[in-house]
Amino acid sequence: MVRSPAFLLLALLLAATGDSLTVRPDCQESCGGVDIPYPFGIGTDCFHPGFEITCLNNTMPVLPASTGVTQVLELLVMPRPEARVMLPVAWMCYNSAGNATGSMEGGVNFNTDNVYRISNTHNELVVLGCNTFAYTMSWCTAHCDDALIAEYTFYSGCTTYCNDSRSARDGACAGIGCCHIDIPPGIGDNLMKFETWSRKDFSPCDYAFIVEKGSYTFRAADLHMNNQTSMPLRLDWAIRDSNINSTASLSCAQLSQANSSSACVSDHSECVDSTNGPGYVCNCTKGYEGNPYLPHGCTNIDECARPREEFPCKGVCRDTEGSYSCICRSGYRSNGDPRENPCNPNFTLAAKLAIGISLGISLLVVALLLVLIVVQKKKLDKLFEKNGGRILQNVKGLTIFSKEGLKKITKNNSELLGNGSFGKVYKGILPDNTMVAVKASIKVNEATKKEFAEELKIHSHMIHKNILKLIGCCLEVDVPMLVYEFAANGSLEDILHGNKKQKLSLDLRLDIAIGSAEGLRYMHLYTIQAIRHGDIKPDNILLDDNLTPKISDFGLSMLLKEEYFAKKVVGCMGYIDPVFMKTGLLTQKSDVYSFGAVLLELITGKKNVYDKNHSLIIDFCKLYEQEETGREMFDKEIAATDEDIFILEEIGKLAVECLKEDIEDRPDMTEVGERLVMLRRERKVQKIPNRSPSLFEYINMDDSANNTNISGTSKATCSVHSTSTSKDFDASP
């Protein structure tokens, strides 16, 4: 068999591409959105003889080989050689007298090049009308030039009947208004004929058309169909003898016997006889896909990448040239072909026993874990209830943290800040990157949980710049954990005496004193119910980034009723009110006493107990009694000028008054705060007198302090006690 040079060049060009081809090189691939695969083509040398497609206005592909303009919807090569086209509906209309007023017989011939056949398996004849018989005629054999006496090989038709306009029903095509019938194979042309009787005014026209099965559903309204309507039709095509009258069948067997050139030019392609008329088509052999009409058009199918329904494999799939293998992986086997039967583990009895025991142990471990989880959950719920969770969970502005959530916040207590009154204090970071301090509260029981919850509720609502904000709590622990805002500079104790000690100016110390007084004043005058702190000391005055003081550690604080007698006195000796020590009576003036002790530390820079066993309160009060001044004990760092000394004198005098033995002689926190604020104001405007050491005498404040003696004309009597760490006081008879 001789191949032309042009054909060999085409083969070389196609071989250079890796994917399967559907169109010849340099040929138009589509028209109006419709793919044009070879043997179809547009233009010279782009199509197999008889398969030319014309692209009208570059928007609509048509079959030029047919009579009339036949629009192409789709062209397929594999797996089934088909062309989908649009065919006009044939019609005939009548007047009231029953005479025809117009018609279109829908004549079309697809066989000018002997390529196409109307598919008998995918199309059907449909007739619409009332009292109508319509049929299609194909393959004219005699008198073809005279339609009245022409004879045809094939006749197919059906009859419709209508009694009235309501007879026809949507979706029903069984003879009333609509009928349908299969068509014979091998026909390549079509001509419709109509015969009618007893015309009905409600159905003036009859219609007939060959249509793709499944694409048309009858509607009663179609008895008045538009005369320009077209329907989709499927055509079978094949490589045939171009002479329509030739008796040669051009089968695959004849091609093989004659050693003739076949249109099946691709490797892995094969010839298959046409199922609708003479001729043959080409297919890619099993395991390949693509276009068998082009050199190297059939390419290997990767069956493993396709859906398992198409190429089944219940084991491990491996693609091979033209096929695929399916095997079980190591340690598995199939009872038959793995393509159809699943692969199961190939276990020995020992392996099965080992797996069974392992699964049993695993299930036991899981069961134990579930039991532990349930027990732990019940324990956490019990602690939550014991610590007042049912009450606190509804408090607005108070966040309830879970035990696990608190561990995440503190990174499992990885950064210790210090020790509070009831335990260690840890640094934490909330999800929004807010830094917090987490510390233990008092231990709660069934008898005290309501009171504890009420106090926590009050504390969460204390919003003041000089009170450490309570953000939330964790109740799923034995001792509730409280979450507070973070004070970056630690406590006043650290700044004055500890490892964070730094120089504090007199103005800054005065600001700290005023801020602390304001915080205590807010607690004492809280609008819902007054609160007393009970443990005021430098350790419990925290300082933020700007050294703004914040009253903290409310472990001993309590709501103030008319009076409160404590059976157990707990706190730091040197700051506890001696009256409270002796009687167990805790009042707001107890906080005033403790604040007076803090003021002494601010102006002297000395600890409450200094030089091993010296009491700051005792020494300062003795000095003040003897000399009516505490100048000798002032911190030299802040006593630089006469103005400084004057301010320190006034603060010392105020501290001595706060430390008086008779609680009625002590000022309240409102007065303490106002006097400190006045000192700061007068210092800023430099109205410091040069005579009397009493600023308040100078500005005539004698009558504004609730008859409290603040002029310094009488000696102060401080209330002091020996230093110790704790003392229990039993007030019971």
Summarize this entry quickly:
It is built from 14 helices and 37 strands. With 733 residues, the protein is α+β, with helices and mostly antiparallel strands.
Walkthrough of the structure:
This protein has 733 residues and is of the alpha+beta class. The chain has 4 domains: 1-21 and 238-300, no CATH class; 111-237, no CATH class; 387-485, Phosphorylase Kinase, domain 1 (2-Layer Sandwich); 492-704, Transferase(Phosphotransferase), domain 1 (Orthogonal Bundle). Helices cover 24% and strands 23% of the residues. The protein has 14 helices and 37 strands. The strands form 13 sheets. It has a 6-stranded mixed beta sheet. Helix 8 packs antiparallel against helix 13 (669-685) and helix 12 packs antiparallel against helix 13. The chain is elongated.
CATH topology of the largest domain: Transferase(Phosphotransferase), domain 1
Q: What composes the largest sheet? A: 6 strands, mixed
Considering DSSP H and I runs of 4 or more, what fraction of the residues is helical?
10-25%
Number of domains: 4
In the CATH hierarchy, the architecture of the largest domain is Orthogonal Bundle
| Tally of strands | 37
**How far apart lie the N and C ends?**
131 Å
Q: Please report the number of helical segments.
A: 14
CATH superfamily of the largest domain: Transferase(Phosphotransferase) domain 1
Mean pLDDT comes to: 82
Strand order of the largest sheet: 26-30-31-29-28-27
Low-confidence stretches: 1-19, 691-715, 722-733
